Amino acid sequence: MRNFESINGQMTIGGVKAVDIARKYGTPVYVTDEARLRENYRNVSAAFNSRMPTRINYALKANNNLAVLRILEKEGSCIDAVSIGEVELCLKAGFSPDRILYTGTSVSNEELSMLAARKVPINIDSMSEMRRLAEIAPGHPISIRVNPGVGAGHHAHVMTGSKTTKFGVPKGAIVNAYSEAISLGFNPFGIHCHIGAGVQVIDPFLEVTDVMIDIVNEIKDVLGLQLEMLDLGGGIGIPYKPEDHEMDLDAMADAITGRVLESTGIKQLVLEPGRYIICDSTVLLATVHDVKETPDKRFAGTDAGFHTLIRPAFYGSYHHVAVANRFGAPNELAYDVVGPICESGDFIAKDRKLPRLAEGDVLVIYDTGAYGFTMASNYNARPLPAEVLVSEGQTYLTRERQTMDDLIRGQKIPSRLMV
Ligand code: LLP
Asked: Domain check: are 172 and 239 in the same one?
């Protein structure tokens, strides 16, 4: 877990006091530290590229803010996109189509046509998708997603590589898939897998690397096709809890690249980290509006609920919480930190020891850069929060808070109901 600087009991991020950001932009607000984002990108890229050529395809499903994308474009990152919407955002942020790899699931013909028109390479998820693409865009650049039968991740919902998930072509059918790709006129450049998200140990990555190496070699032996690119997906975990350990990227890179260099003709490794790059660069600031004590519980009612950050409610995820305006004060009392949504599953933290809270306190919710804003919703007709970038003591509004007008935009009442 990341440490933030404290000045006279005030938490700072990117050289700015969190309470000043809360006052200027209101809460709830997501605040991203540009320096940390750049550092994370450089860490993962250097760990692998110092050993073999590795393309980092940032998974923007984690965070698709255009300013974040611009920063990563300038850093030299490439992109893992899962929808035509994500592709459009990346093109808008300045990525050329060859720096994007589209990995969709349940892909429509319309989306395939739009991708082909934009010349974005496609990572095929199923035989159905491949055959339809052969009709729509013959010879389009493709790779194929394998279901490797190796799944891992922080929750069952996000383990994608296990045999029974909907993703990819089963590994037992993969040689035939490449054979059919060739007969359909494709020249597949690579192969892809993704075991899952938020993986906090190295072993499953090594296990899947071995599976993929065997497949690459089998494709070469049986079909005479040497694949150029091996994409091992995303999923590098981060320490959310104070006692969690950081992943040892050097050890991971050493073990993976060692295996790949030794046993295949693969020229380029690809990784698709989302969380690792963006997660700890960002905090969510929320204001305590209501403090309630019942005979059984003590609640801190804030303006951030599961409409703002759904991970605690959806996956039972831990997000560290601190008080920005009394940063470092000793924890005294256990609170359920809850939001304004009318469901009892609306919580940010449960039974969390915090300093004694008062109305008006500003809470810092850590590690919310990944799957925070992108999974936020308008439930209970609550506007989506603002996003702010901080860099060298300056703040920049990068996404306006939604307004009441945004909530009704696009809705139409049939005229017969207006009389
Ligand atoms: N590549 C593929 C094909 C993926 O499906 C994903 C995540 C990634 C890369 C990036 O995984 P990361 O490096 O960020 O762990 N909403 C969940 C995470 C779902 C991830 C889905 N796929 C959460 O809040 O933890």
From this structure: yes
